[in-house]
Amino acid sequence: MVKSLFILKIIFCILMGFIFLSSISLAITDEERKQIAELEYEQADYLYSQGNCRDASKHAFAAHQNFLILNDENGITKTKALIEKINDCLRLEGDAFYVNASIFYGKGVAYLNLKDYEAAEAKLQEALNLSLEANISYSLMIPIDEELISKINDLYFNITEKIRQIQIHYVDEIYEKCEKAYFSKPKKLIEARNYCREALTKYQLLKYSEGIVKARLLLDKITDEIIKKRTYAENQFSLGKETYEKAKTIMDYIDALSYIRKAKDAFQSIEETPKVVECEHYEQLIFGSLAQKEEKLIQEAERYWDSSREYFLMEDLNRSLEYANYTCNIYRELKNLAEYLHDKPKVSLYKEKVKKCEEWINTVRDELSVAQIKKQADTYYQQAVIAFKNGEYENASKLLSKAWELYKKVEDWVGIDNTERLNRSIQERFEMMDIAKRYYDEAFSKYEVAEFNEALALLNKSMDIYASISRNKELKVCEDLLKKINEGIKKNKT
Q: Is the pTM value of this prediction over 0.70?
């Protein structure tokens, strides 16, 4: 519609120019104007005869205006007659353009319905050009036929609306690329932002409010995420730098490297190239420090390993186990580093080192367990010896049995021999206790039948045995019987 009005204005200016040039009364006389009017008429008639109705219309209009100024009835009459023929020509010409424009419009709509946007756009563009041609032809009619202008303007509007739909579709495709980049994993924020900006600009040119709103909303969201991602990256970089500067252990360096790599990935995702380069610089610094640290730890692990073996030979098993654990922990740390760096040869190497260490630790622990069992067995044995010396032969026998079981478990033949020798001594004591018990029982029997002297002799034998083997409890029982026997002897004497 706007384009049509623009064309009308151009045509109006051209016609007014003709009028202006032909109406400069101060510059020409009536005779000269008459000559100009005739020349314009003849030119219009000639152009009409040649089929150039558009230019013929301009000259006919100029001739008509000059004849009007001269009030030349003959000139006015013949010019009107020529204008009517030119109008018929322009109408037919415009109608032909209109029909063809309508045909191409119909084809364009058909392709559009099939979603063949490229073919639809080509047909509609051709329809648009033809409608403009029709508009020019209709606009040059004198006077202008408003009905024809309205008809062609309606078609022009329909064509431009369909073209706009196609243009919106193309911008929608750009917006979809924005969404695809934004919702991809990982998100392609910069690519998404660029597509979204392009879509927003084109939606604005098309004055498509729905597209403007959705593009602006998504662009704001993307921009916000880029800002947050940049902030996150800067924080991770600061943490990585700080951790690196304070690093002392392998894990410290790994943590620093992890922070720097997270920062690098974040900066790459928002295409902050200078920051990515800075992250790569710190990566190299950390790798260098890790290589130095790794070499020192290897040397340290070898020293601990040698110390563990030496302490084992010295039978200081706790120290041996302590240094074996130090060695194993170092190799585990180095294995973790190799795994983090995806260094397969070193992962394999340190796994083997850890396995060897763990086997050695099990050996030391087994030996330490044996030593602890021996120690417990020795404790039982010593307690049995003390009980034996105190005449607690039952307890001594129980303790000795426990000691013997433990010595047997760890195959301590010296311990087994000692327990068996002590056990023989205990068994001898039990035999003596049996003899002493028989003497006591016989003495008691003699006492009951008042054979006090025989009872006394038997009781003394029992007490001598009990005294020799430190059986104080039995001695006390014997002493009670002794009193009774002595009392019996006194009664017999009186």
A: no
